[in-house]
Design goal:
With 185 residues, this protein is α/β, with parallel strands linked by helices. Helices cover 32% and strands 28% of the residues. Strands 1, 2, 3, 4, 5, 6 and 7 form a 7-stranded mixed β-sheet that branches.
Length: 185
């Protein structure tokens, strides 16, 4: 079985490497819509499936993996910030509160679609203005949903999580592994 990861995320690639799931990274021509669903779970599942279906250079019979991760806080979807000001606003809103990280995952196997999601609750400490500004200066927040990375300096502010750590990084590898096992049993 060959697994093709239809994702530009270096974190997803690293997570699969870390747990020993052999894979090949490929591009996807899928363009995420600019509109947001009322239902964030449906949104990430559809986007994961779109990425998998539009994977480039995948041979017949291969398994394709697509994924999409968002942060949801007080009912609002926080994607990747487009500006420094947007990152600043996101971090201020997450300070001293709880948010959800939801990852949609799609596995395409022999014409069958296996689509699911994983949700993790993340508890943030209270952030000072100086902490937020120093973090923004690192540029780390700019390519991450919710403007932080738990695998980087953002880990300093997480007081607790409920659920999968790897989901917060960008791919719930333990769930992906279980689904692959169930498909190929």
């Amino acid at each position: 079985m060959s697994l093709y990861l239809a994702s530009a995320s270096p974190r997803r690639h690293e997570l699969l490497d870390q747990v020993g799931i052999n894979h090949i990274v490929v591009d996807s021509t899928y363009k995420e819509p600019n509109t947001l669903h009322v239902n964030p779970v449906k949104m990430v599942e559809e986007q994961a499936l779109g990425k998998a279906k539009h994977a480039v250079g995948v041979p017949a019979g291969a398994v394709v993996l697509g994924a999409d991760t968002i942060v949801v806080h007080n009912g609002r979807v926080l994607g990747k910030p487009h500006t420094i000001e947007e990152a600043r606003q996101m971090l201020h809103s997450l300070s001293n509160s709880v948010h959800s990280v939801i990852t949609g995952v799609a596995l395409l196997v022999n014409g069958e679609e296996h689509v699911f999601h994983n949700e993790t609750l993340v508890y943030f400490k209270k952030l000072s203005v100086n902490e937020i500004e120093s973090y923004i200066d690192t540029k780390e927040p700019m390519d991450k949903a919710g403007a932080y990375g738990i695998q980087g300096k953002g880990a300093l502010w997480v007081s607790k999580i409920e659920g999968s750590y790897t989901n917060v990084v960008g791919l719930p590898v333990e769930r992906v592994y279980d689904v692959l096992l169930s498909i190929f049993k």
